[in-house]
Amino acid sequence: MHPAQSPIGVFDSGLGGLTVAAAIARALPHEHLMYLGDTARVPYGTRSPATVVRYAKKNVAFLQGHGVKAVVVACNTVSAHALGGLTDGGSTPTLGVIRPGARAALAASRGGPIAVLGTPGTVRSDAYLYAIHEHDPRRAVHQIACPLFVPLVEEGWEHHPVTTTIAREYLAPLAGTEVDTIILGCTHYPLIRHVIEAAAAEVLGPDVAVVDSAHAVAEELAALLDRTGLARPSGQAAHRFFVTDAPDKVGEVGSRFWQAGALRLEHVDVVDEEGT
């Protein structure tokens, strides 16, 4: 089989990465996808960097065992702590979500400060800050930890007044900062993009750009596949979705993240050599 016919592998610590997979499916409708959500060990944000690296390598090994032609790390925690360890010496092209998101934010910005909304772990890592400063060392970056957004999304409260109130509270410190671009630094946040945009308009004005890393990753992946001759030019795509725990319990949540047709989750055991 020609390598171009092989699937693209996507993994996350849970199901939020399905927003990235869905963006890839929309941008590259002929490409097969294979998704792995490590629901048995979510969240990764509470783990040590060494443990995150170990889990990520096991996830990549699973995808490579299924012959994927590229790997997308649809997890901000892994992208922050383990991406270098996954790409060093490997032959499979690998993309994270942080650098594409940072580049997209810089492209969307009019030169003002950039705000990053993320989980506490992503904010503590300063990964978006470093990625932005790789291109523009003097750019002001405001990072805001939004720990309640993930449970609100998983509860299905995308349109609940509580979510609107919390978004306003999180964005309130940006008042007067002249931020012109906001990065959604978590794969859950696209589901409440409308809430975040409304809160941003109240705090910062109507011209704030909101950047979703998922779309940036899809665009960079398309360019990578074209550049390496791995793009699948035509044909109907087939997708498979794996989780490491409780596919029957997480299916409803996964469908909200996927939003791109039918979603059937298959269970797979992916454990490291220590059994954790």
Termini gap: 35 Å
Shape: globular
Provide the low-confidence segments as ranges: none
Q: In the CATH hierarchy, what is the architecture of the largest domain at level 2?
A: 3-Layer(aba) Sandwich
Largest sheet: 6 strands, parallel
* Strand composition percent: 15-25%
* Helical residue percent band: 40-55%
Number of strands: 10
Arithmetic mean pLDDT: 91
User: What is the radius of gyration computed over CA atoms, rounded to a whole number of angstroms?
Assistant: 18 Å
CATH class of the largest domain: Alpha Beta
Strand order of the largest sheet: 4-3-1-2-9-10
Question: Features of this protein?
Answer:
Rossmann fold; 276 residues; 10 strands; six-stranded parallel beta sheet; alpha/beta; 2 domains; four-stranded parallel beta sheet
